[in-house]
## 1
Amino acid sequence: MKNKKLVMIPGPTPVARSIQDQMGRETVAFGDPAFIEDFKEVIKDLKEIFKTSGEAFVVAGTGTLAMEMGIANVAKEGDNVLVVSNGFFGDRYKELCERKGLNVDVISAEWGTTVTPEEIDNKLKEKVYKAVTVTHVDTSTGVCAPVAEIGEVVKKYEDTVLIVDGVCATAAEPEYLDEMGIDVLITGSQKALGVPPGLALVFAGKKALERRKSLGTIRDYYVDFEKWIPIMNDPSKYFGTPPVNLIWALKEALKIIKEEGVENRYERHRKVARAMQAALEELGFKILAEKEHRAVTLSNVLYMDGIEDAEFRKVLAEEGVVVAGGLGPYAGKMFRLGHMGNIDSHYLVSTIAAIERTLYRLGKTDVIGKGVSTLMKGLME
Ligand code: PMP
């Protein structure tokens, strides 16, 4: 009999049964009165959970579309923007902004570390930047940027809008727009929210909405805030067809988040990450990210000598756990393990146990159970 395969990649994450069930419901007309009510509730909940007095947008697309939407509404061709890059997805924002004809400056951190708020402050003193982009958790490195402190810095600059890429952080790391000086938060459905892939979510605070107004007609069409604001405030209106089942799935995901309590959810992610990272280190692996900047959503785990990436991940999959490979310079040198969203201790214990069985099969350990023991102690503290 084959093991069930746990999807422990950094998104899509395991989808809870009740969320999955929403995907199988009979699709209704987007003008269906009950669906309109559901959509309204989703928007209201999103604004409350992520604390914005501005707007929330939910459109069909992925995180990359949300990145486009974030920048397209706050900067126009020729504007200066500052991209803060802690890895692959920061670099993606650079490329995306350059394609839009923006004047892009970049501050990069060595992979595994983060750009500091002081470095950003110093850069912002040099010239007027219309926007700064920061990746909250760069999935390529497992580094979490100090977004609250960066928010404090960017707030001082009246002409600068702070865009936070929360794709690998939202619903696992605190992100409160009004309180943290985040002007635009962009994210996707498939990671810590625990919804299948296919939704781009964008939040815009007052400063960002004023900026959008000041730009007049923008080049981008599908991602234009002005096109979507009437729909998000009254989903009986039409601009683009809403992905009905995914919006139901998101509604169920938000119900789960509210039941857990958002602060409890953040705390759970912290505890799980610390326990999992301690267990991985106990097994002899190294984590790429510096300890003080480690993400709670995933671990970027460096192989010890003599482990071959493809073989490790193949054996691990046979043992029932799917993880992702490294990106960029770390391709072949690490695996990326997601531990975010709606996962309980069954997923976590099974995952570390499968990793131990894999090391055993590869002849890298003859003691089994050290990782499971460390993980369980961490989870029960
Ligand atoms: N930003 C970050 C931090 C991500 O992790 C990802 C996806 N891994 C993206 C953006 C792009 O999202 P998508 O793959 O949904 O387009």
## 2
Amino acid sequence: MAGEFDLIERYFAHLSPVRDDLRLGIGDDAALVSVPPGHDLAIAVDTMVAGVHFPVDTDPQAIGHKALAVNLSDLAAMGAEPTWALLALTLPEADEAWLAAFAAGFGRLARESGIALIGGDTTQGPLTITVTVHGRVPAGQALTRAGAQPGDAIYVSGGLGAAAAALALREADVARDALQACRQRLDYPEPRLALGRALRGLASAAIDISDGLLADLGHLCRAGGVGAGIDVDAVPRHPALAQLVARDDAAWYDWPLAGGDDYELCFTAPAAAQSRVEAVAESTGIPLTRFGEITPGEGLVCRHADGSAFRPGAGGYQHFVRQS
Ligand code: ADP
Ligand code: MG
């Protein structure tokens, strides 16, 4: 697109931290990096399309943050340490104010997480952002979706449902501070990188929650050839939810169980390792809540705290739940 080189130079060439494992960054035909000996590379890519993955009127700074954050969340779920990123940007026009804000959001998270932007592509078309990330993990130590064993405890980090609440209540006139807190979670998800690294050698399986807890736990179970029994009342809610929805409202369950965009980590660990999980919560400062157990067989069985069967609302996620 017109002025492509100027735009790249101005907004992206000096955006992110210098790393000594980067031989050659933005400006040549390809970047050159050195993979440290004894490490595996974890590589992931995610595309965000305006109007599909974020509302068209989203603050461009939030778009820049989130485009990188959702990818870093995948590295977190693998227990990897972020190293290098590539950014493919399709823009309807070269709007400099938009680009400056986008670059500020992207750059800030890149510096915080130590990932270097080493290249990309810039084209004209409907607003679409594709980010590829690389991370390193000591050879053989990556966390994967497969590996959960019957009897393992199931945990989730943080509190769920805030992003879904922000989307559902976008137009609503409700508790403003609580809604603002949810909107912050939707726009500025915090990838759980330190947690993912701390879970190496402890978690038997892990996944990040992008599509909703039940959907993503379902992926983890299928990858391991196991099932799960979960207590839907023990699933931790984001603190703002209590101000936005009554506990007998279907949304009290729908948002944390089926709402996407939380970017927390769901993982399993042997029941005997509970004190080690508690130590990780302590050292990372991230609450880790046990809400279920891996079972033999397949499917998710959802119960209330009193043992009664959970019947999902009209949230379109009935098919995740096996009635038994
Ligand atoms: P080529 O034609 O060889 O693909 P480009 O003109 O697309 O090269 O890009 C020139 C340089 O700028 C390359 O190093 C590329 O990686 C980098 N680059 C292009 N777009 C971006 C972007 N949006 N963010 C970061 N780097 C970019
Ligand atoms: Mg190119």
